[in-house]
Write a structure and sequence with these properties.
The structure is a homotrimer.
Chain A lengths: L16 H15 L9 H11 L5 E6 L3 E2 L2 E2 L3 E10 L5 E4 L14 E6 H4 L3 E2 L21 E2 L2 H6 L4 E11 L2 E9 L6 E7 L6 H19 L6 E7 L3 H9 L1 H5 L1 E7 L8 E4 L7 H12 L4 E4 L8 H4 L8 E5 L21 H20 L2 E4 L26 H11 L1 E5 H8 L3 H13 L3 E4 L3
Parallel strand pairs in A: 7-8, 11-12, 11-13, 13-16, 14-15
Antiparallel strand pairs in A: 1-10, 2-3, 4-5, 4-9, 6-9, 10-12, 14-16, 17-18, 17-19
Helix pairs in contact in A: 1-5, 1-10, 5-10, 8-10, 11-13, 12-13
Chain lengths: ~450, ~450, ~450
């Protein structure tokens, strides 16, 4: 993976990335067998496991609730599902692989010919051994997902088909881990919790979100951090509908998805395109030796498609390794526990933590003696014996921060203008603040 | 010519470009023999021929009228002109080629030596067989244009020189074809009608303007279209002086010139540089497989130099094939009926029609459910069975239009941001409008 | 040096650059032996010599005066300094080279061992024959600068060390040559006068400033010109503190340094980055055939670091040949009279004069007949016989100035947009102004 060193901010450099990668993998392994959908017991079990790691607040949104243009659907639960041949053998068994059932399938129990069954079977012709993942949230139907090889081997027979599912008035579950900070400015990290046994999409993002939350739990925070665990689309829309006022206060957002597989980091810009989160991501990625790719916003993807709808336009980017739909294992049974690796998870963790730290530490400052330079020498901030000056000394960093400390340049802007590392510019700002030469300002 | 296919908007795809090219060529052939100048009977005859094709409104501006810094000159007419040698032979005959006489020549009838005649003869030393085109609108003089070969063959002799021209109080003629639309927002197309037998400059533009008008006559229009046929400079200035209030309402302008010869399309940007007409031309040209060139505004050229004067700054671009002055035949007898071709005319027609259609169909829209995505599924606008999404489907086009339907992005902006064809974005907007999810807005 | 021709403005083309280069060199040679520091008799002597060339106004700022965050230090004078060996030989003699004493050294007279003396000796290990230049303005200490070779040859001995310096309540001297112009808009050129025997840094800049002032003394001026001769840092800060209201009126500033050595011109942009002085410098440098380099602002360097502090943000650039710290002779005894050359000085003079002339002649104009073109023909400004137009004729320059004479484009902007030489655009503006077609406007 090349360089996996964290930026050298005070608190977080002691963490062992390798150990965190392993822990994230362990959490994914625990969550993998659970059959999740946008509602139902699988979501609840998942949240219970996450609660072992971090404090979670779970909000229940009853079926039938209107959220903007949408309505919360009934809760879907499934106990069992199978296809039996005429010998009574379970040739397709939900208990062996929960991808076998199209999510939100209607209940069915019937005997039928192959011809009648055929339209309800989904496969991937070009990947004969893989089982696809399909959903039918907003259309009443039922179906099974099977491998192409299995499908081709099916004989004319009388099949017993059973999906023991139920639709009941229940709840959509929205979970969050809130970590208040010194200010009410919010940083939000989101992931989705609605997929069944798919390791990279999106369990990897769940594990990463959990471990980012674990990290910020332990440190002092200027921003308030909020880590969201939401069923995709309907969950995100419900959260925004029920938290509209809070949403407006979000300063920086990051949606996570597909962060555990091979392939290099992809960062997708927020709709604004040059929001602080976009600049921070670009800055952090440019510092790594690893390959990466930055893309402009497009209006489909993960939670950012709702947060970045024009009525909100919240500055939320999306970080992935290979993005959804661009690797063959995506939405198939091949996205399993062998596809994600601790080292990829650790690298994604490092990049996210660095981005979040830049956002946390960045700010706008005002030089309190803006006319000419202050006399740094008598404050012990300047070498006594005049001579050559060069390189990237803290002294020069002080001059950069003083000169661009005009309330219009963030520390990250100054880092980029000067070419100095963000950490050094941040340190210079702290030193100047201690000497009363700089004052933090709320916003530009 | 490579691709000459029109964009696939509803109405205009049925036209046969080849047939239209032939018809334009026919009109040029009809107009070619007429001796035009900025005033006089030639202009009138030309407008009469155009009236056969489209409804024309002709405005008469009397000689002596002040138009901004200028004064409308006397009407110039010419019945005959010749140079006879001492044998009485017409060695230069206006009736054989109307380029022989410098336009706006004073009347003269005299006998003179070669030495006295010589300063009144104009030729092109480096193109020995071609006759140049010269004018003397605002300086009292007379002259003949001849080939260099002819000039060199002239013997010492007593010549009879006659220009039977007259200057009378008459009228400058300004012609326009007005096609009102649903709104008062205007699209203006202009060409000049002051040149004698020059096929590419500017009869090709006259023919193209006529056939664009014929096309828009037949279709329903959101914009009001105005097609102007003006004597160069003084006619354009007079039109702007007499229509100042209307000029301010022009949303998009396109000046045409030199559109019938070989060479690829050149589009010259309006003074604003990024007006919608500039974006539309760039978009359309980028879609063709043919070579093209886009240039920045310069303050000389055709009607755009007046429309883009700083007191108006109307967004008018100029479309040519090889621009004036950049091909040797320009302003010579070699710019004849063999120099223009139906296929070049047809290609220019296609490009102009596509540009005008983008301007006609483009607009600013507002998403009526701007917070989160609307539920497209229950309106039948989204696939029921979730899975992979990619390529350039109408579904994705809907998402692009919804997300950037914020009143600040035109459909063309959205097409360029998304990389989707303008027609698909336009279609998506129409679909969303029909479902009440989008509302047209007057201006950004 | 390649091209050293001045731009062809009326007045200044008669000057002989070669002769001016020689005169500048002569002035440097006169000033070189004087021992200058930020205060003291050396500065006074220097200003007296400059007064022979140009009228100087000298302002005295008493020791102890508060200027922004700083306090004017005591006046430092030095009569003699030496190190004698036990034989009584002056092995280090201030009278032979004034770089031998650290500037602002405390007085000392003592006998000491080599071991005790050693920490007070400064040398350049990698340049064994050169003597470094050191200062200790704001820290109480004393020291000698010697060559590395000398240092290595020192034997164990009892040395007599003497620095006969004094610190008294005196004055900091700020000198300026003010040349009022037709308007109160100011152009400021600055240089520093605090260095002892260093020819390129900064005596070359002193000489260049003097000769620019001599030039503008002789010509009529639209701008008021102010040429500043200031002790570095404290002098600049004191001047800004005492002239705060005037400083705000500075339209264009140019700091000079290191302008007499080999190496190509470097222009460092003002903090604003695209101020008129930045555009003018870039324009002039792009016109020369010589190599050059343009750099963005950084908050260290010469007077521009104070003028460009955020509380002032005055548009001041800095012009050098090889910038400070980037050539090995910088701040050493090798920066002597053999390092600077008349031809380099002349080339720097040419570039500065051209930049200052562009600033002096540039301006914003308004077309008085902004609707359509005015009729240039009847004013004798346009060829009578219409035909081809091309190249860079004055006629086309007239059209450029008329079209962009909208009060928002400076003449330099128009020169750059059109690609025409600035002088031609300026001439066109003058012609149009004479014909009442253009009117100068105070500011954009």
């Amino acid at each position: 993976m090349g360089q996996t060193k964290l930026m050298s901010f005070e608190k977080h450099h002691e963490e062992s990335l390798a150990a965190i990668g392993e822990s994230m993998y362990g959490l994914i392994a625990d969550l993998y067998p659970i059959c999740r959908s946008i509602t139902g017991k699988g979501v609840q079990q998942t949240l219970e496991r996450i609660s072992v790691e971090i404090p979670l607040h779970v909000e229940k949104v009853p079926s039938g609730t209107r959220v903007f243009d949408w309505t919360v659907p009934k809760e879907w639960n499934i106990r069992d599902a199978f296809i039996k041949n005429s010998k009574g053998e379970r040739i397709v068994d939900f208990k062996k692989c929960n991808l076998h059932v199209v999510s939100y399938s209607q209940p069915v129990h019937a005997h039928m010919s192959l011809e009648a069954l055929r339209p309800h079977l989904h496969s991937l012709p070009d990947k004969p051994d893989w089982i696809p993942y399909r959903t039918s949230y907003y259309e009443e139907s039922w179906g099974f997902c099977v491998s192409q090889r299995f499908l081709e081997g099916l004989q004319e027979d009388q099949y017993e088909v059973c999906i023991d599912s139920s639709f009941t008035d229940g709840n959509l579950l929205l979970a969050e881990c809130n970590l208040p900070g010194e200010t009410e400015d919010q940083i939000v990290v989101t992931c989705n919790i609605c997929h069944p046994s798919l390791a990279n999409d999106t369990l990897s993002a769940v594990a990463l979100t959990v471990f980012l939350a674990k990290h910020f739990l332990k440190v002092s925070r200027r921003h308030s951090f909020r880590f969201l665990f939401l069923p995709a689309t309907i969950g995100t829309i419900a959260w925004l509908a029920l938290h509209e006022q809070e949403a407006i206060q979000i300063r920086h957002g990051l949606a996570l998805s597909n962060v555990g597989g091979p392939g290099h980091i992809h960062y997708k810009r927020s709709r604004r395109g040059n929001a602080p989160v976009d600049k921070a991501a670009e800055y952090v990625l440019n510092k790594t030796v690893n390959k990466f790719e930055i893309r402009d916003f497009v209006p489909y993807g993960y939670d950012e498609r709702q947060f970045c709808s024009p009525g909100f336009n919240i500055p939320m980017g999306c970080l992935s390794r290979t993005p959804f739909g661009e690797y063959p294992e995506y939405h198939t049974s091949a996205d399993d526990l062998s596809f994600v690796k601790a080292e990829y998870l650790a690298d994604s963790y490092r990049v996210c933590l660095d981005i979040l730290y830049v956002l946390e530490k960045d700010g706008f400052y005002v030089n309190t003696t803006p006319k000419c330079e202050p006399q740094l020498g008598r404050r012990g901030l300047y070498r006594g014996l005049g001579g050559r000056m060069g390189g990237q000394s803290l002294e020069l960093a002080l001059l950069w921060v003083l000169n661009y400390g005009d309330g219009h340049h963030s520390l990250l802007d100054i880092a980029q203008k000067s070419g100095f590392p963000f950490e050094m510019i941040y340190k210079a700002a702290r030193v100047l603040e201690e000497h009363g030469l700089l004052r933090r300002q709320d916003s530009p």
